[in-house]
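The data layer described in this paper is built around a simple, fixed record for each protein. We quote a single record here, exactly as it is kept in our systems:
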Amino acid sequence: MNVISALKANLDEKARRDKRSSSLSNIFLLNNYHFIFKSVSNSQLANEVGPHAIAMYQDWVNEQLKIYRSSWDKLLDYLIEDRFKQSTRDKLASLLHSKETAIIKARFNVRYTTLIREVNESTDI
């Protein structure tokens, strides 16, 4: 388990050093933590590290997944009116009518270019 902890510390440091975008760092960590989790849990190494360590690796993935999902909040807040924010995704899909869909599309079209430009400027791709 010390090797994997050292690997995690190394990945965390690489993500911190990348100043281009916190979103890219998050995706980098999410991808690598998921790889560690799947690689360990689908191998004989799972018996060596035990269920506690496997749960810890899953927690790493879940933490980064939560951060990734929250990174979309700004865009979703802009696109979706307050009355839809409390709805689940399934309820939201059933609540939208053509007029409301048109409003969301119009809002998206107005801000899309600006948001993409901000992302491109912050990532230097």
About this structure: The chain has two domains: 2-70, 73-123. Residues 73-123 form one domain. The radius of gyration is 19 Å.
